[in-house]
C-alpha cells in the first residue's frame, strides 16, 4: 500500500513526519501499513483538538472586542450627552446662526419647534447684536433668562436627559397712522389689537430682526416693508 501526506503525517512510534513512504518508517522501521488506522486516528484527533481550541479562542476574542466597544461607546456617550456639553452645543448653534442645529435645539413656550422665519430672524439678531450673543451662555445657565431658558425635554437613547432651549416670545406695540391696518410679519398676517390711541399690539412674536409690512388707508407708508427688531428691552421699533 502506498501512503501520502494527506493520509499519514507522522509515525505513531517515533513521531517523525512521513513523506511518501511505502510500508516501513525510514527512522524506526515500524510497519506503517499495520499501524495505518492508528495513524489516521491520531491525526484526526489532533485536528479536532486544534479546531476546538481555535473556536473557543475566536469566541473569546469576539466577546472581548464587543465588551471593549460597549465600554468605549458608553463612556463616549456619557461624555457627549452630559448637560454641560449639550449646553455648549446649543450655545454654539445660536451664536453662529446655524439654523439647522437651532431647529433641533430650540422650542417655543408650547414645546414646538420654531418656524424657519423665526429661526432666521433670531439668527440675524444674534449676528448684529453683540450683547445678545454674549448673553446666551448666561441665560442658558441661569434660572431665568430674558430670551433663552434651558428645559429638560425627554431622553436621549432612553437614558440621558435631553435639554433644549425654550425661546420666550415677546409682545410689541406698533405705532402707525394707517386706518384699519393689516399687519404682516415675515410675509404672514398677524393679529394686531387696537388700543384706540393709534397703537397696535402684537402678541407672541419671537425675538429677532423681522420684516414688517403694514397695509391700510390714508398712510404714505402703507404697503412698505420695514425692519422690525424685537428684543426684551426694545418694544417699539419700526424703521
UniProtKB/TrEMBL annotation:
Keyword Membrane: yes
UniProt-listed Pfam families: Zn_Ribbon_1
Every Zinc-ribbon domain range: 10-29
Protein keywords: Membrane, Transmembrane, Transmembrane helix
InterPro entries cross-referenced by the UniProt entry: Zinc_ribbon_dom (IPR026870)
Parts of the chain that traverse the membrane: 60-80
Name recorded for this polypeptide: Zinc-ribbon domain-containing protein
Organism: Companilactobacillus mishanensis
Upper taxonomic lineage: Bacteria, Bacillati, Bacillota, Bacilli, Lactobacillales
Amino acid at each position: 500500500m502506498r501512503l501520502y501526506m494527506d493520509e499519514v503525517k507522522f509515525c505513531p512510534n517515533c513521531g517523525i513526519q512521513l513523506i511518501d513512504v511505502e510500508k516501513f518508517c525510514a527512522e524506526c522501521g515500524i510497519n506503517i501499513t499495520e499501524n495505518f488506522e492508528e495513524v489516521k486516528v491520531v491525526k484526526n484527533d489532533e485536528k479536532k483538538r486544534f479546531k476546538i481550541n481555535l473556536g473557543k479562542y475566536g469566541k473569546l476574542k469576539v466577546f472581548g472586542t464587543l465588551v471593549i466597544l460597549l465600554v468605549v461607546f458608553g463612556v463616549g456617550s456619557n461624555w457627549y450627552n452630559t448637560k454641560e456639553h449639550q449646553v455648549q452645543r446649543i450655545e454654539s448653534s445660536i451664536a453662529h446662526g446655524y439654523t439647522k442645529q437651532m431647529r433641533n435645539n430650540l422650542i417655543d413656550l408650547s414645546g414646538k419647534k420654531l418656524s424657519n422665519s423665526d429661526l432666521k430672524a433670531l439668527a440675524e439678531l444674534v449676528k448684529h447684536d453683540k450683547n445678545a450673543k454674549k448673553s446666551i451662555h448666561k441665560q442658558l445657565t441661569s434660572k431665568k433668562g430674558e430670551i433663552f431658558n434651558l428645559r429638560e425635554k425627554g431622553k436621549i437613547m432612553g437614558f440621558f436627559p435631553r435639554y433644549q432651549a425654550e425661546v420666550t416670545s415677546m409682545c410689541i406695540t406698533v405705532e402707525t397712522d394707517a386706518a384699519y391696518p393689516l399687519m404682516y410679519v415675515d410675509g404672514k398676517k398677524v393679529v394686531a389689537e387696537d388700543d384706540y390711541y393709534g397703537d397696535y399690539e402684537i402678541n407672541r412674536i419671537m425675538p429677532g430682526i423681522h420684516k414688517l409690512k403694514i397695509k391700510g388707508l390714508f398712510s404714505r407708508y402703507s404697503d412698505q416693508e420695514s425692519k422690525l427688531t424685537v428684543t426684551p428691552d426694545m418694544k417699539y421699533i419700526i424703521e
